[in-house]
TrEMBL record:
It comes from Haloechinothrix salitolerans. InterPro entries: FAD-dep_OxRdtase, FAD/NAD-bd_sf. PANTHER family: FAD DEPENDENT OXIDOREDUCTASE DOMAIN-CONTAINING PROTEIN (PTHR13847:SF281), SARCOSINE DEHYDROGENASE-RELATED (PTHR13847). Residues 32-389 form the FAD dependent oxidoreductase domain. This is NAD(P)/FAD-dependent oxidoreductase. Its EC number is 1.-.-.-. Pfam families: DAO. Keywords: Oxidoreductase. GO terms for molecular function: oxidoreductase activity. It comes from the Bacteria.
Length: 453
């Protein structure tokens, strides 16, 4: 696969930044509720509050959609993120709630797209946990049982039965969800927000969040905002303030790359008839998906820990792009000559439990981390439920599922540079072993054929 002419972008490969970015805050203002962060989570909270007649201000450091909301792979998941076998081991009682939340979240986004008539190339294909080895196929079967037992909707099948490329043995289809252009979706939500009564202020970084009696006070470079309630929706960037609970999440940089446009006949020859997005069952996944522009977007495979705040603006490491390209050529040998055209990445937040979570720091400061790589569906849904909680004073049962009574979190394990490198190395070792087994099987069947002749 060619990687010598890749366009590295510090924003997203899906869309350009909006042309109408709003001016920075200049002076002080007051409001009832302030939302910090204009990703899918924060925008959903602000929009719902505005729709429900609340006096709401949203502050965004760059422009709404600047974060991972516009940069992700666009796979709208209908199942929770993380290692479901481990989650089932530690949080078995929570599983039915988590599965229900994940499915409701995907439907919520589908309804949002329809309600606001957002053109984001959405296809309700579902997504597949795809196996690249017999070991991964066993894992897929175990995970499917866990999800079904908890009331979720999945189907297990071979690659032929699922309509996915033959480079994968088979997998588990999440029936609910699909894929979209997340950049178009996020900018569509931004448009809906700008058309609402919410006051949106972009290019304004909140440098501190403090309390003054009953009020929350936000500091920005050129003015203060005072509010009765605040919602922290800055995802991976949350650790920048002292008020953020310790160990709430760790910031991790992940990347996606996109091929050049591929001849539709070559794409059709892959047997990818379902067009479902694919996520491999490595400890650190690889994801692959078709796009409406006849390209394939794929990525992750390595997690890069952000070690200090403020998080740097980054472009992907060319060595990782190279590594992803090699993996692509293994999964899609017929497309090994295709070039990588662009690469980008973004910061996600991983919680120590790998569960999405939400809660209150005190009576009037709310937070949520609905990410763990699955926030495309969950961030907008949880953001909306937090708005409803603020207005109604009651938690929806899906918000209850991830609610933290106390903002206390254990130090995350294996999330340092060494831990992440070790997980990556185990994946590569398994790939190597599976590759040799595959070659040995091919060699054995060739020998049998020639002996028979
Ligand atoms: C490469 C990649 C692939 C992914 N793939 C998928 C996928 O296929 N499916 C899926 O479900 N999820 C995926 N995700 C995760 C998903 O994108 C996120 O979970 C989701 O977008 C989180 O939304 P958010 O609103 O919480 O955060 P963000 O979109 O990150 O928004 C946070 C916002 O806060 C702003 N901000 C930060 N600090 C401040 C401050 N001090 N003051 C004011 N504003 C501030 C930022 O500028 C940003 O706009 C992926 C993520 C990445 C990066």
């Amino acid at each position: 696969m060619k990687t010598d002419n890749v366009e590295y972008t510090a924003f997203s490969g899906w869309v350009d930044p909006p042309a109408d970015v709003l001016p920075a805050l200049a002076g002080d203002l007051t409001c009832d509720v302030v939302v910090i962060g204009g990703g899918l989570g924060g925008m959903s909270t602000a929009l719902r509050l505005a729709e429900r007649g609340q006096d709401v201000v949203l502050l965004e450091a760059e422009f709404c959609g600047h974060g991972s909301s516009s940069r992700n792979a666009g796979q709208l998941a209908g199942a929770p993120g993380g290692d479901l076998q481990l989650l089932n081991l530690f949080y078995r009682k929570k599983m039915p709630g988590m599965i229900r939340l994940a499915e409701h979240a995907a439907h919520h986004v589908e309804d949002f797209i329809a309600k606001h008539d957002i053109d984001c190339d959405y296809e309700p294909t579902g997504n597949t946990f795809a196996a690249v080895s017999r070991g991964q196929m066993g894992r897929v079967r175990r995970v499917a049982k866990i999800i079904e037992h908890a009331g979720g909707h999945v189907e297990v099948g071979t690659s032929e039965e699922l309509g996915i490329p033959r480079g994968f043995l088979g997998g588990m289809r999440e029936v609910i969800g699909g894929m979209m252009n997340p950049g178009k979706f996020t900018l569509g939500m931004r448009r809906a927000l700008l058309d609402s009564s919410a006051r949106v202020i972009e290019r304004t970084k909140v440098t501190d969040v403090t309390r003054d009696g009953e009020q929350v006070v936000l500091t920005t470079p050129r003015g203060q905002v005072r509010a009765n309630r605040a919602v922290l929706s800055t995802n991976a960037f949350a650790g920048e303030w002292d008020i953020t609970p310790k160990h709430l999440s760790v910031p991790i940089y992940v990347i996606e790359v996109e091929t050049e446009p591929i001849d539709p006949e070559r794409l059709a020859a892959l047997g990818w008839t379902s067009r479902m997005g694919l996520v491999t069952q490595h400890a650190i996944m690889e994801n692959y998906r078709l796009t409406s522009r006849n390209t394939i977007v794929f990525g992750v495979r390595r997690l890069e820990r952000g070690m200090s705040y403020p998080l740097p603006r980054k472009t992907p490491d060319p060595a990782l792009v190279e590594e992803l390209a090699e993996a692509f050529a293994t999964r899609f040998p017929a497309l090994a000559d295709v070039a990588v055209e662009r690469a980008w990445g973004g910061w996600i937040a991983i919680t120590s439990s790998w569960l999405p979570l939400a809660g209150q720091i005190d009576a009037n400061i709310f937070y949520s981390i609905a990410c763990n790589g699955h926030g495309l569906a969950q961030a907008p849904y949880i953001g909306t439920l937090i708005a409803d909680l603020i207005v109604d004073g009651e938690r929806h049962e899906d918000l209850e599922t991830l609610w933290m009574d106390k903002p206390k979190f254990p130090r995350p394990m294996m999330m340092g540079r060494l831990g992440l490198r070790t997980i990556w190395a185990v994946d590569r070792f398994n790939d190597l072993v599976n590759g040799s087994r595959r070659n040995a099987r091919r060699g054995a069947s060739r020998t049998t054929e020639s002996t028979t002749e």
